[in-house]
Each structure stands twice: as structure tokens, then as C-alpha cells.
Design goal:
By secondary structure, the chain is of the alpha/beta class. It has one domain: Metallo-beta-lactamase, Chain A, CATH 3.60.15. The chain is 37% helix and 25% strand. A 7-stranded mixed beta sheet has the order 1-2-3-4-5-6-7.
Length: 275
């Protein structure tokens, strides 16, 4: 799907468990050459290269892969793409250790079906940080925006002339599982994104938002994170064990099924840690 001229959304479907199917979006920027934001899961390189071919582009014209963060549904296709296209891989210093060493990531943040989602580690060729600006080619300027919280050192990327920002998982998707490593950093990143000059907000886990829609979803995300923080503050004194605290928060949210989700457990733990 073309969002604005030269910006295409590519959907990567994947299976977390036999009963849980998910998807993540990556985004292809097309000018004289091509650049990609996130690489989907292992095997997503086929759809990405095919999209390029449909647009009249050869694999070697993929010049760069910009990774918003290290999680498997964002980096899983990276090694194959780098091998097939010779593209330069960009990421932040804080995310690179988990991108370049998936075994370490799996040990620290295990999720179901990890090895199938991200089969190979990806060498990072160039480190980026918030405030960096890259001139991809005339009329394509990419600005790096620091948006940690969902992950330790997550980045968003603003395509300046087109008024588009690629936000990865920095904005909690409405109705989805709230997943983040640092609730205070997440709130700060949402405030940062509210102030960004962009007409189109492109997340990995939801549809593309107009600016008006993005402002509403950001406000919902802030309310959700703030609400969980208040719950943890209220419950923590009487629930010293993390498992019991997670159960209590799930019941307060009216979503008891979340107690089985290992990443939601990390979400609750970060509220207690940073309280």
C-alpha cells in the first residue's frame, strides 16, 4: 500500500503460537534507490524484494535498512536482506547488542517461537541517535527521533519532506497488549511524538494514522500507562510478589488473560522498579 508518493507499507504476518497470529508492518521508501524501515520476521525478505520488483527496483537498490529496535518482528528479516542486497544496516547503540546477538536477546527476553521469528543475528553497520539527520537523496531527508520505552533505546524516523514518521512500537496500539520496558521513558517518547511535525504516523502494529488520529491514540496510550502506574502504586504494598501483583493488575484492567503473557509481566515489573 502506498501511503504517500514513494512510501509503501509492507505487512509481515507471523505465528507466535499455534493459536496466536500477529503481524508487523515495515515501510519501503522509494526514490532513485530504496530504503527500508524495519525488516519484519525471518522470511519477510521475499515480500520486500518482490515489492521492490513490482516497483521496478532491483535488490541491489536497497541502500539502507533502518531498525527502530531489536525485537524479532522488526529485525528477523534483516540478515537475509543484508545478504541479498548489500544494504547498510542502521540502529541505535542501545539496541545493537540484541540485534547482533539474538542468543543474548532470547536469554534476556524470551518469547514463544523466538527462533522462527528471528533466525539470524544482524550485523549493524552504522549507529544512529536522536537528532541525527541523513540525506538519502535529493528530496528524501531522514531525521532520527529518540523514542525509548517500549525498548531500551528505540528510534523513530521522520521523512521530512513527505511529512511521514515511522514510529515502530513507540505508540501503544489501542486494545493491544501494553508492552514496554520503561514506563517513564514511554511517556516521554509519546510526548516527543506529539510535538513532531508530521502528517502521517506509521506504526508497526496498527494502521497508518493521520495526525489527528495519532494525537488521539497517543493520548490513549498516555492514559493507559498512567493508569497502570496508579494501579501498581495502589497494589504494590499489599502484593510484594510480582506474580500476585501481575494477577491483581490484570483483574483491575479486566483482562485476566494477560497474566499468561510474559511481556506484560515485564511491563508490570518496570512500573514497580521505577516507582
Amino acid at each position: 500500500m502506498e501511503i504517500v508518493k514513494g512510501v509503501h507499507q509492507i505487512r509481515a504476518d507471523f505465528q507466535v503460537t499455534p493459536d496466536v497470529q500477529r503481524y508487523a508492518f515495515c515501510y519501503l521508501i522509494v526514490g532513485e534507490d530504496c530504503w527500508l524501515v524495519d525488516s519484519g520476521v525471518a522470511g519477510s525478505d521475499e515480500a520486500i524484494v518482490q515489492t521492490m520488483a513490482d516497483l521496478g527496483k532491483e535488490p541491489h537498490q536497497l541502500r539502507g535498512l533502518f531498525l527502530t529496535h531489536a525485537h524479532p518482528d522488526h529485525v528477523g528479516g534483516g540478515a537475509a536482506l543484508r545478504r541479498r542486497t548489500g544494504c547498510t544496516v542502521y540502529a541505535s547503540a542501545g539496541e545493537s547488542p540484541w540485534i547482533e546477538n539474538l542468543k543474548l536477546q532470547k536469554e534476556k527476553r524470551p518469547i514463544p517461537n523466538f527462533d522462527a521469528l528471528a533466525a539470524e543475528s544482524v550485523p549493524v553497520d552504522r549507529l544512529l541517535k536522536g537528532g541525527d539527520t541523513l540525506s538519502l537523496e535529493p528530496g528524501l531527508t531522514l531525521e532520527v527521533v529518540a523514542t525509548p520505552g517500549h525498548s531500551a533505546d528505540g528510534l523513530s524516523f521522520r521523512l521530512v519532506e513527505q511529512g511521514v514518521i515511522f514510529t515502530g512500537d513507540a505508540i501503544p496500539a489501542p486494545g493491544d497488549i501494553p508492552i514496554y520496558e520503561d514506563w517513564q521513558a514511554s511517556l516521554h517518547s509519546l510526548d516527543t511524538l506529539r510535538k513532531v511535525e508530521a502528517d502521517w504516523f506509521c506504526p508497526a502494529w496498527d494502521k497508518v494514522y493521520t495526525r489527528e488520529e495519532a494525537m488521539a491514540v497517543i493520548a490513549q496510550g498516555e492514559a493507559l500507562i498512567g493508569g497502570i502506574q496508579r494501579m501498581v502504586q495502589d497494589l504494590a504494598a499489599g502484593q510484594p510478589e510480582l506474580d500476585k501483583l501481575v494477577d491483581a493488575v490484570c483483574l483491575r484492567l479486566g483482562r485476566p488473560q494477560l497474566r499468561e503473557h510474559p511481556l506484560f509481566r515485564r511491563t508490570v515489573a518496570c512500573h514497580r522498579k521505577n516507582d
